């Protein structure tokens, strides 16, 4: 995404979780005993790659549009940690994603540290979903993600009742990711959702694309996919999930709040301050009209009910 002015920053539930997951977590928590002490779950740091491929396609999430070619989806990517061009896939190979210790903390019963490969085993069977993806820059793609409903992670984390939001954070390794040496960006990349959004059936944690493990440039080993929101919400290579009662300030929101809001729901009626949002360029060819909530109105409109009924045009941006 292009930012007009550089600022001088000083700092740099349709799927039910199997009961066994819940019980395992309980048992782990009991075994760990001490509350407030980080618990290392699994066998990290000597971990194995994520397995479970190929995933089984969930027929509920198919799509009428043609799939984007794997080549386009894996070579035309936004990953500012590796530079602001779309052609960063070679640079991203430098990132070591195994082992990959993820921290789940904040307003949860117990802080958990777990390797990505162990975490996915706790999140149920891997499934494949075809989703549309609409970047705020007005290009779009349709791809098969493999992963798990985010709601499974919420259950695994065991949030306290006062937790209202989930803040997610990407790695910070400037020696590997040269973009992170650009100190005017507020690294690390941060995104957030309300817990209710994270529990929506469409919110997905992807570990694969086109039936294989995610490649680094697409957010290995684990990334968010929220297809009714502009693509920048779908944070890549997540290292930390923090449950909180404060609305997180996202990376792009800090840089340019009028252009990249917290909600960022796809909305053809609200233009970006510098370009229209009513059409999109489909990777691979052609343009099509952009749909409200990127075509997922039926699944997500309830989340924004008052705004939705008040005035569609003012829907969160
Ligand atoms: N996550 C991180 N950590 N860094 C980024 O620069 N770019 C976002 C999002 N997640 C980004 C990120 C943007 S702007 C988009 S459109 C999508 O990732 C792109 O996902 P894709 O490259 O897999 O298509």
Characteristics:
22% strand, 317 residues, eight-stranded mixed β-sheet, Sulfite Oxidase, Chain A, domain 2, alpha/beta
Q: Would you kindly provide a written description of the structure presented here, covering whatever features stand out?
A:
The chain has one domain: Sulfite Oxidase, Chain A, domain 2 (Alpha-Beta Complex). It is 18% helix and 22% strand. It is built from nine helices and 14 strands. The chain has helices spanning 19-32, 70-75, 89-92, 116-122, 150-157, 195-198, 251-255, 297-300, 305-310, and strands at 39-41, 56-57, 101-106, 112-115, 127-134, 139-149, 165-170, 190-194, 204-209, 212-213, 223-225, 238-244, 279-282, 287-289. The model is unreliable at 4-37 (pLDDT under 50).
Briefly characterize the structure:
This protein has helices at 19-32, 70-75, 89-92, 116-122, 150-157, 195-198, 251-255, 297-300, 305-310; strands spanning 39-41, 56-57, 101-106, 112-115, 127-134, 139-149, 165-170, 190-194, 204-209, 212-213, 223-225, 238-244, 279-282, 287-289. It is of the alpha/beta class and 317 residues long.
């Amino acid at each position: 995404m292009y930012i007009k002015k550089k600022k001088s920053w000083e700092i740099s539930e349709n799927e039910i979780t199997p009961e066994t997951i819940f019980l395992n977590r309980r048992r782990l928590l009991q075994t760990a005993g001490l509350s407030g002490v980080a618990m290392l779950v699994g066998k990290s740091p000597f971990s194995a790659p994520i397995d479970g491929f190929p995933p089984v396609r969930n027929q509920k999430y198919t799509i009428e549009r043609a799939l984007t070619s794997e080549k386009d989806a894996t070579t035309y990517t936004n990953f500012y940690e590796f530079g602001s061009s779309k052609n960063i896939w070679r640079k991203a190979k430098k990132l070591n994603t195994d082992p990959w210790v993820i921290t789940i903390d904040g307003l949860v019963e117990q802080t958990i540290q777990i390797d990505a490969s162990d975490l996915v085993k706790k999140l149920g069977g891997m499934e494949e979903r075809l989703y549309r993806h609409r970047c705020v820059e007005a290009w779009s793609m349709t791809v098969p993600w493999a992963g798990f409903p985010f709601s499974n992670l919420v259950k695994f984390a065991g949030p306290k009742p006062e937790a209202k939001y989930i803040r997610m954070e990407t790695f910070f390794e400037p020696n590997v990711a040269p973009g992170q040496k650009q100190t005017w960006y507020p690294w690390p990349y941060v995104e957030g959702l309300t817990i209710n959004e994270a529990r929506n059936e469409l919110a997905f944690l992807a570990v694969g694309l086109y039936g294989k493990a995610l490649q680094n440039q697409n957010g290995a080993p684990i990334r968010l996919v929220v297809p009714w929101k502009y693509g920048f919400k779908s944070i890549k290579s997540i290292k930390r999930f923090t449950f909180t009662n404060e609305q997180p300030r996202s990376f792009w929101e800090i840089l340019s709040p009028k252009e990249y809001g917290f909600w960022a729901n796809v909305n053809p009626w609200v233009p970006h301050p510098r370009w229209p949002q009513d059409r999109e360029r489909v990777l691979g060819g052609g343009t099509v009209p952009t749909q409200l909530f990127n075509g997922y109105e039926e699944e997500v409109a309830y989340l924004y009910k008052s705004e939705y009924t008040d005035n569609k045009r003012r829907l969160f941006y």
